[in-house]
Amino acid sequence: MNWTDEQRQTIETTGRSILVSAAAGSGKTTVLVERIKKLMIDEGTDIDRFLITTFTNAAAAEMRERLEKALRDELKKPDADKTMLTRQLSKLPSASIGTFHSFAFDIVRQYFYLIDVEPGFGVADDVQIEIMKREAVDNVFARRYEENTEEFRNFVLKYGGSRNDGTLRDNVLETCKTLGSIHKGIEWAYAKADLLASDDPLTAIGGYRYMAGRILRALNEAEAGYRRAADMANDASLPLCYEVACGDIEKIEDLVQKAQVAFACPEEGLRGAIEAFEGLLTAFKAGTMKYKDDGADEDIKGAITKVRTKAREEISGVVKEVYGRPFDEVSEELRGLHADTVYYVGLLEEYYGELTALKAKANVIEFDDALHYAIDILEHEEAADELRERYEYIFVDEYQDSNYLQEEIVEKIARSDNLFMVGDIKQCIYKFRCIRRSERRGS
Q1: CB of 203 within 8 A of CB of 335?
Q2: Can you say how many angstroms the Cα of residue 225 is from the centroid of all Cα atoms in its chain?
Q3: Which residues contact 21 (CB under 8 A, 6 or more apart)?
Q4: Residues 212, 218, 223, 225, Cα dihedral to 10°
Q5: CA–CA separation, 85 and 97 (whole Å)
Q6: Are 54 and 60 in contact (CB under 8 A)?
Q7: How many whole angstroms separate alpha carbon 39 and alpha carbon 27?
Q8: What per-residue confidence (pLDDT) applies to 257?
Q9: What is the Cα–Cα distance from 17 to 416, expressed in whole angstroms?
């Protein structure tokens, strides 16, 4: 096969961990297979010393088939090492090629004795787990109603909805679904809740950093809108309107640049930078389009006006969102939410305990449980060292689809020079990009 220079570099580079950004259809899986084959042939690394993770079971099956074909094609060559290649083919069916979840389940089955999981556990299906979740939240609320504390009554009245507590129960389920993507999510939630009790909770929870990001996103959206309006005017041969639209783009570009400079300051100076930026946002005024002078018909005038109105509303909307209330007032309100937030996290913790008990009684776990249990297991150096020794190379396909839990698993067993990740990270079209893992951390 005729490889591009970037593809060949990706296949042949060794001695470091690599992240490859490649768009769909650019041959990234073919390159990944070729790299694995080359490592087997050049270094004599057996296929069972590779951990290869994919996003779906179908992708894993396809990966296995591609590797088998690549090895059989090598066998046909006159100078092939038939003994080595035959050995690889015999080991291929049992090689570690699968989804992150299947790998996590393998870890749990092998090291169940390191955590509080019974051997021979089953995997709960979606219907079973939804029934358990609803039963768990109902049990928690039933206990709280039986205890009938004033704190619980006040909490339900405040957050339970106008007629019943159904909304609150649904919120518990939804919040726990989100926390499920964070290892030790309840500990994390308690720590975040305590930030509300600080002297300046808006700073403590990253509120000003969020505001800065929100302003920049709004400006970028507005810029994109005004650019669309300029393109529409140009396509419709409206030179005067196009000139006005280009002037609007310049104004927005200037705001974006000033915002990037202003918000690059340390955290302690961010509030002042955001306060100072309010005047620039409110002073922004788009030019007046010269539809009549350009002879624009009503259809094109309406289309351009709609796009420009939406762009203008991006700016007015973020002004209202960020500057609608005094920052000190927002901080004081956040501080007042501390007690309720801690109480809510307590409800979540009790729900988790109830759900865990129901799963244990049925001796089942769900898919994301496997990821959490795998991380718990890998916190034991005994297990982490064994897996680190077992896998000479780790490959992660469709890296952009992996979550924090999956990345944490990889972090615990990877070395600094044996990880190869490929995905549509930068959404490049027919391009490859090699990045040192250390650079990825800083990007």
Answers
A1: no
A2: 27
A3: 423, 424, 425, 426, 428, 431, 432, 433, 435
A4: 170
A5: 18
A6: yes
A7: 19
A8: 96
A9: 6
Which range has the worst mean pLDDT, 17-26, 170-179, 220-229? 17-26
The predicted-structure confidence for 121-177, as pLDDT tens digits, reads as follows 999 999 999 999 999 999 999 999 999 999 999 999 999 876 789 999 999 999 999
Closest C-alpha among 222, 201, 198, 202 to residue 210:
202
Phi, psi of 98 (to 5 degrees): 180, -170
Please write the tens of the pLDDT for every residue from 292-332.
888 888 999 999 999 999 999 999 999 999 999 999 999 99
How many angstroms separate the CA atoms of 81 and 390, rounded? 24
206: left (phi over 0), alpha (psi -120 to 50) or beta: left
Count CB neighbours of 324 within 10 A. 8
**If DSSP codes are grouped into helix, strand and coil, which group holds residue 96?**
strand
Crossing angle of helices 126-147 and 150-159, rounded to 10° = 130
Strand-pairing partners, residue 440, are none
Question: CA angle at residue 388 from 385 to 389, to 5 degrees?
Answer: 85
Sole residue written with tokens 């300029």: 230
Q: What is the pLDDT of the chain when averaged over all its residues?
A: 90
Q: Measured between alpha carbons, how far is 379 from 361 in angstroms, rounded to an integer?
A: 26
Token pair belonging to 189: 């939630």
Are residues 17 and 418 in contact, defined by beta-carbon separation less than 8 angstroms?
yes
CB within 8 Å of 384: residues ≥ 6 apart: 378, 412, 413
33 close to 40: Cβ distance less than 8 angstroms: no
Per DSSP, the chain holds a count of helices (H) and strands (E) of: 21, 8
Cβ proximity of 140 and 173 under 8 Å: no
Single out the residue of 195, 235, 233 nearest to residue 334, CA to CA. 195
Amino acid letter at 233?
A
Whether residue 377 contacts residue 114, with contact meaning beta carbons closer than 8 Å, is answered with yes
Range with the poorest average pLDDT among 144-158, 343-357, 425-439 = 425-439
Mean pLDDT of 73-89: 92
In percent, the amount of the chain with pLDDT more than 70 equals: 95
Please, how many CA atoms are within 13 Å of residue 66, restricted to the half-sphere of its CB?
19
Distance of CA 202 to the CA centre of its chain: 24
* Token pair in block for residue 54: 């994919």
Q: How far apart are CA 40 and CA 86, in angstroms?
A: 12
